[in-house]
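Suppose you are handed a protein chain with no further information: no name, no annotation, nothing but its sequence. What can you learn? This example shows the usual starting point.
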Amino acid sequence: MDKRVKVLCLGDVHGTGYRFLIKQKALELRLKGYCRLNEQEVLEVEVEGRTAAVDEFIKFIQKGVSIQAEQNKFTIEVFDDLIGYTTMESDII
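A reasonable first move is to predict its three-dimensional structure. Written in structure tokens, the prediction is:
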């Protein structure tokens, strides 16, 4: 079974390495989607793939992606429908 999640990283995400680390973890787990700063300067991540891989990705986000931004908070939305992403994109790499 597959699922999709949307994560918003709230707080100071500049210079923390979040986008790089998030993309690397998603690629490691073979997830597809995107990671970028939106218009409100909030880090927005959306990935989809196998449920077990998405669950591991969520645990990665929840435990803290980078020690440089321990004060950040996250919102996570889970969806059963898929978008059909074919790659993992980021606005930095």
